């Protein structure tokens, strides 16, 4: 259970989940409340391989994970959810992602809540790591998986980030290159 001392809004049996990738725009789970939010100390990068959603084991796509980055703010969406939602989210985020506890700042509502995010660490077998922007964009353009095209993942994320007022130069650069290929 989260630390109630920083989380006066939390209802019993509920938790907050912070989404920074597809969890911002593909909301296939019930939630009680949704708030634009940010976390500190992490940056978003297309460094995680996707074998199960936007690629295949033979031809993995690229999706985002978080990399520790002291002082960096990462904006996303926070959802207040019932704990039962983890059954679905743990399955959805199974390819290398693990739950991690963080402080989540609610940008518009104000205040800080404790919550969970899914991060794919550099030691997970599907981690791809950095590559040149053009190479990553080529890989994203070429990749498809059971959840759809990798291209759609990138462009939907780019759009969703702009809608919540986030300037993410890494995502924006990949989207710009991909649109021009
Ligand atoms: C997230 O969206 O928070 C995790 C990464 C993803 O599912 O795209």
Quick rundown:
This protein is an alpha+beta fold and 181 residues long. Helix content is 27%, strand content 38%. The strands form 2 sheets. A 5-stranded antiparallel beta sheet has the order 1-3-2-4-5. It has a two-stranded antiparallel ribbon with strand order 6-7.
Summarize the helices and strands and which ones pair or pack:
Blueprint: E1 14-19, H1 22-25, E2 33-50, E3 61-82, H2 85-92, E4 97-106, E5 112-120, H3 133-142, E6 144-145, E7 148-149, H4 150-163, H5 169-180
Antiparallel strand pairs: 1-3, 2-3, 2-4, 4-5, 6-7
Bound molecules: succinic acid.
The site of succinic acid has 10 residues, from helix 1, strand 3 and strand 5.
Could you please describe the fold and organization of this structure?
This protein is 27% helix and 38% strand. It has 181 residues and is α+β, with helices and mostly antiparallel strands. It has one domain: Hypothetical upf0131 protein ytfp, CATH 3.10.490.10. The strands form two sheets. Strands 1-3-2-4-5 form a five-stranded antiparallel beta sheet. The chain is globular, with a radius of gyration of 16 Å. The termini are far apart.
